[in-house]
Amino acid sequence: MSGAFGADTYTLLRPSPSKRVTSLSEERDSLPPAFTSVRDLLNMATPAVSHLEQEKGSNGRGEDLPRTHKCGECDKEFRQLSDMKRHMRTHTGEKPFRCEDCSKRFSMLGNLKRHMRTHTGERPYKCDKCNKRCSDKGNLKKHVRVHTDDKQYKCKDCGRQFSYLCNLKKHMRTHTGEKPYRCDECSKLFSELSSLKQHMRTHTGEKPYRCEECGRQFNVSGSLKRHMRTHTRKKPYKCEECGRQFSLLENIKKHMRTHTGEKPYRCNECSKQFSLQSNLKRHIMTHTGEKPHKCEECGSQFRQLEKLKIHMRTHTGEKPYKCDKCSKQFSVLDSLKSHMRTHTGEKPYKCEECSRHFSLLSNLKVHMQTHMVRSHTDVRSAAGSSVGWVI
Q1: Is residue 308 within 8 Å of 298, Cβ to Cβ?
Q2: Domain 291-370 has CATH 3.30.160.60
Q3: Strand 349-350 relative to strand 329-330: parallel, antiparallel, unpaired?
Q4: How many Cβ atoms are within 10 Å of 26's Cβ, its own excluded?
Q5: Residue 348: DSSP 8-state
Q6: Rg for the chain (alpha carbons), in Å?
């Protein structure tokens, strides 16, 4: 092409490749606010070639197309006007694509399509090695490296290796303590963007992951996976010491401490140690006197949320635990367990003095007082006898 630029010689690409622009003002009116001058419009013009050839970045003769479309904000250049328009949304914040299920918005249609799979559960990409399915093509590519053992990125501090540079960068923050992602609502900091996104759902209340069995919803996909095991009864983690099985990895790790005796959580006040962090937190309240869980009915306060829930049943009359033998109901699980011994005849509590067994610990304690009374009586009798002997 030669000669001065003319509207009849060039076309501007639109979402539909067949539509030709007949008026520069018409095209300008449809552009984002950043591109309102004719000069800007002319700078973005590109020769009219087929849509398919432009997708490939070729002009049909095997030559790369020039990057004639320049972003006025950051000077990044593009071959196609449509690409530049998509890019402009990173500056304007425009998100025209909306999820009808959860109202989340996206700047690109492809991102919305990928997001929809979190609702539908669709995983169209399958690994040829282990048949694992992924919802995203990029995730499948990352997964495949598990089989190839291609880990070219190595941490200089601890020697750990990674398949992806981005994973190494994330890992390095465990050494540096860097937390570059900040929550605008509560100022909490995170080392990973994904962690911030998950945290934001605690503010928005968004729960995009739904159980197809019972309809319960979760804000994290991992929580949905763990929940699903309550339906499938699957317990993939087995203790090699005692054979006990667990549905969650963190639970078997905690259980293993019952075998090793490990107590990694230590109280700074009294140096008492605990195998579980939750137990340490409860213990610390015995020093601080803190009872954060308060009953709104009667004002009673509790250190543990579970204790408050049990207490609330005294107001509601709820008795969720039912005996399979006689249908008697109880508000506390321990009460049901104690009751079951009336059917099984089990008596796990033994008196060390006379070897008598009891089904309830409270009954053993009452019984132990009979030995204490006899002991005091024997002492007094012996004392009286001694006095009489002297006389």
Answers
A1: no
A2: yes
A3: unpaired
A4: 10
A5: -
A6: 35
For residues 45 and 1, give the distance between their C-alpha atoms in angstroms, rounded to a whole number.
14
Amino acid making up residue 116: M
Residue 157 vs residues 149, 168, 229: alpha-carbon distances, Å: 21, 11, 38
- What letter does residue 47 receive in the DSSP assignment? -
Nearest to 28 by CA among 8, 17, 43: 43
d(CA 77, CA 86): 12
* Pair 191, 182: CB distance under 8 Å: no
User: How far is the C-alpha of 148 from the C-alpha of 116, rounded, in Å?
Assistant: 30
Residue 287, φ and ψ in degrees, nearest 5:
-85, -40
E-state strands within 137-262: 153-154, 161-162, 181-182, 189-190, 209-210, 217-218, 237-238, 245-246
- How do the domains of the chain map onto residue ranges? 24-56+65-92, 98-232, 291-370
Indicate if 291-370 has the same CATH topology as 98-232. Answer: yes
Angle at 60 between CA 54 and CA 61, to 5 degrees: 135
Q: What is the pLDDT along the chain (391 residues), one digit of tens a residue?
A: 334 333 333 333 333 333 333 333 343 344 444 443 333 433 443 333 334 344 445 555 556 678 888 898 888 898 888 888 888 888 998 899 999 888 889 988 888 888 888 888 888 888 888 888 888 888 888 788 778 767 888 899 898 888 888 889 889 998 998 999 999 989 999 988 888 988 998 899 898 889 988 989 988 888 888 888 888 888 888 999 899 998 888 889 999 999 999 999 999 999 999 998 888 988 998 999 988 889 999 999 998 888 899 999 999 999 999 999 999 999 988 889 889 988 999 998 899 989 999 988 889 999 998 888 776 666 566 666 555 544 4
Which helix or strand (DSSP H or E) is residue 357 part of? strand 357-358
What is the CA 333 to chain-centroid distance, rounded?
A: 29
Which superfamily does CATH assign the domain made up of 98-232 to?
Classic Zinc Finger (3.30.160.60)
